[in-house]
Amino acid sequence: MHNSQSKSALLVMDMQNSVVSRFVGNEKALLPFQQAIEAARSYGIPVIYVRVAFRAGYPEISSRNKMFGGIASRAGTSAVPETMMHIHESLQPRPEEPIVTKLRVSAFAGSDLEVILRSLQIDTLILSGIATSGVVLSTLREAADKDFALTVLSDACIDADPEVHRVLTEKVFPHQAEVVSVETWVASLSS
After folding, report:
1. pLDDT tens column, 136-184
2. 188 closest CA partner among 97, 59, 180
3. Which superkingdom does the taxonomy of this entry point to (predicted)?
4. Which residues are bridge partners to 87 per DSSP?
5. β-pairing, 8-13 with 47-52?
6. 31-42 and 182-189 are packed helices; what angle lies between their axes, rounded to 10 degrees?
7. Are 36 and 182 in contact (CB under 8 A)?
8. Which is higher by pLDDT, 53 or 143?
């Protein structure tokens, strides 16, 4: 999991107010995310936040895109309020921690994430976020294809469907990533 020769980064994905408000019933669900962020910071592991956002008028959204196509028609030409794009207050980035804006499900889609990772010489990604079946799955697949070593923090991933979360973390993700709890990951950092 933690190789002293590797250079890791923690990705905190889609933890913006608009997403957290739809998926998280209480603040306790965010504790694993907070613990992962604190551990990464204390061990000098870069924390990179990823959010999805669009320009006013949604020129990036195709009507053919089943997941995002309805956003523009529901919102008209007005942009989503800026506060809904902010990272949830309990997981606030520090000024030096990048916030990457993506345009699709994967953290790499339409973003400068790969440039940042290359600049920091990152070869290992620790994934957390909402939703397990969305950003975590898409980012894991793309990152694996880009030859990153991967760890998924199973309790720092949330999905609307607990069974989908279970199947992904127990049966799908292990083919391309280490899947561990935040506690196990944090313990591995000190060994």
Report:
1. 999 999 999 999 999 999 999 999 999 999 999 999 999 999 999 999 9
2. 180
3. Bacteria
4. 16
5. parallel
6. 10
7. yes
8. 143
Give the distance from CA 3 to its chain's centroid: 22
For 141, residues 6+ apart whose C-beta sits below 8 A from its C-beta are: 106, 176
CA distance 191 to 113: 29
For the entire predicted model, the pTM comes to 0.91
Interior angle at CA 112, CA 63 and CA 17, nearest 5: 65
Which domains occur in the chain, in start order?
8-53+87-189 (3.40.50.850)
What is the average pLDDT score of the chain?
Answer: 90
- Dump pLDDT digits (tens) for 114-130: 999 999 999 999 999 99
Report the C-alpha gap between 19 and 168 in whole angstroms.
Answer: 20
3-state SS, one letter per residue, for the chain = CCCCCCCEEEEEECCEHHHHHHHCCCHHHHHHHHHHHHHHHHCCCCEEEEEECCCCCCCCCCCCCCCCHHHHHHHCCCCCCHHHHCECHHHCCCCCCCEEEECCCCCCCCCCHHHHHHHCCCCEEEEEEECHHHHHHHHHHHHHHCCCEEEEEEEEEECCCHHHHHHHHHHHHHHCCEEECHHHHHHHHCC
